[in-house]
Amino acid sequence: MITMDRDTRLEKVQEGEALFRDKACTHLCVAPASITAPWLAAAVTSLWDIQKSGSVEAGVGDLRVSEETAACVGRVLGSIRIQWLPTPDVVRVSGGGVVLRWSLDKDEVEVAVLPEEKVLLTTLSAGEIAESYELPPTQYLRVNDVLNSLVGPS
Amino acid sequence: MPFTDDPSIADDVMLVRVLRYASWAYPKEQPTRPASVAFFDSNGENSCFIVNEAEFDKLAEKFPDVKYGAVAAGQARAAGFYVSRDDDGADGLAGHVILGFNMPDINGLAKYRKAAERLAKGGSIYVPYLIK
Fold it and tell me: What is the DSSP letter of B8?
């Protein structure tokens, strides 16, 4: 199951008409994510496809992505507050990890989510790694800063 | 038992990684080398094969239409990886080795990511000759 953090869901509610608290959840369930962030719907769909497939393949590695890791990817995605972004590539890595990559011109932002909630944020320029550091769960919002730098002021 | 570098695998020995997905090759449209994600196994243990020992007909049966990313053992070592035989690890497929990375305690994941990038950039696409 893929989850996003509560703040993101509340933002989506607040963008629509005023709702009573008890109806908000229903409203969220039927509102497509693409209304608020087109890239997010594509990313979540790709993540879902990756999570429901994959097996242990001798000679390649363990290509399964656990629910916990997919949920962690969901939390990273849910922490992003930027509406307009390029659709990220969602790439499986062996050993149960997922890499999200946003590319614009020669710049890239990459978030690798590995099992046990290990998250690595990497920025690349012209194919060279500019920065790479681990993100603890309390700092997923920092992805917004680097993505803002990627797309520039909106 | 943990894997360690096997010096009997000389630096000029060519190794291939099965590029299981199109996204594991770079660039996607017309790949010229493996992508860094191909050498970024979450456990730090990337399954590879020694070119001169691999049975490419069997690999082709198992993984039809895949590309292979090639690196020399010496390139892998220079990037910070170890190369270790793992005869039992590939379901009977010959020439299986682990191209592994021991993650340091400090900034280990970032260092692994940089090592994977360095290795991938020195790699190429290997096309095996198969008799049909």
Answer: T
Residue B20 is assigned to a structural domain of this protein: yes
Q: Is B26 part of a structural domain of the chain?
A: yes
Cβ pair A133:B20 closer than 8 A: no
Query: Domain range for residue B62?
Result: 14-126
Neighbours of A126 (CB within 10 A): 9
Tens-level pLDDT at each residue, chain A (154 residues): 555 554 454 444 344 444 444 444 444 444 444 557 899 999 999 999 999 999 999 999 999 999 999 999 999 999 999 999 999 999 999 999 999 999 999 999 999 999 999 999 999 999 999 999 999 999 999 999 999 999 986 5
| B6 located within any domain | no
Reported as a single tens digit per residue, the pLDDT across B99-132 is: 999 999 999 999 999 999 999 999 999 999 876 6
Measure in Å the smallest separation between the Cα of B38 and chain A Cα atoms.
7
Task: Look up the pTM and report it.
Answer: 0.86
Residues on chain B touching A120 (C-beta within 8 angstroms): 109-110, 113
For A89, the closest of B23, B40, B93 (CB atoms) is B23
Q: Which residue has the tokens 């990559």?
A: A101
For chain B, the domain total comes to 1
The answer as to whether B95 is a domain residue is yes
What letter represents residue A24's amino acid?
A: A
**CB-facing half-sphere around the CA of B91: CA atoms within 13 A:** 10
Angstrom distance (rounded) from CA A89 to CA A100: 6
Q: Which of residues 109-128 of A touch B (CB under 8 A)?
A: 112, 114-115, 118, 120, 122, 127
Residues of chain B in Cβ contact (below 8 Å) with chain A: 18, 20-21, 23-24, 37, 40-47, 49, 59, 62-63, 89-91, 93, 96, 107, 109-110, 113-114, 117, 121
